[in-house]
Design goal:
Radius of gyration: 15 Å
Strand order of the largest sheet: 2-5-8
Distance between the termini: 13 Å
Order of helices and strands: HHEEEEEEEEHHHE
Largest sheet: 3 strands, antiparallel
Number of strands: 9
Structural class: alpha+beta
Length: about 120
């Protein structure tokens, strides 16, 4: 838990420099629903297998697809570099992804879904 709290205190450049990765037991869920006769994919959600921990129930968190792609990419580089590559692969400006990605990383780390060590 101390490591999770420490992530909340990291400055954005320091957080982006970490090798953030999914924790063991992380789960990815996706759903598709029908709207006006077309299949629409909802954003992916990350959670933990057996989502009840010592602190109680841990919800799944909706994440931008580029953040999920960055977390699933080779962990030998910083999460900032992987986010940049994922944004470019999706044709997004990396700066447009930065705010939501940082908030998502902090929440995922707080819940123990992402590790930064």
């Amino acid at each position: 838990l101390a490591g999770c709290r420490a992530v909340a205190d990291l400055a954005a450049p320091d957080l982006l420099a970490t090798p953030a990765r999914l924790a063991d037991g992380a789960t990815i869920s996706t759903t598709t629903h029908v709207a006006r006769g077309a299949h629409v994919d909802a954003p992916p959600r990350l959670g933990l297998a057996g989502s009840i921990g010592a602190g109680g129930w841990r919800p799944a968190v909706t994440v931008p697809p580029a953040l999920l792609a960055a977390l699933l990419a080779d962990g030998d580089t910083s999460i900032g570099e992987r986010l940049d590559a994922a944004a470019q692969a999706e044709g997004l400006d990396p700066l447009d992804l930065l705010g939501p990605a940082l908030m998502g990383l902090r929440e995922l780390a707080r819940l123990g879904i992402v590790r930064t060590d």
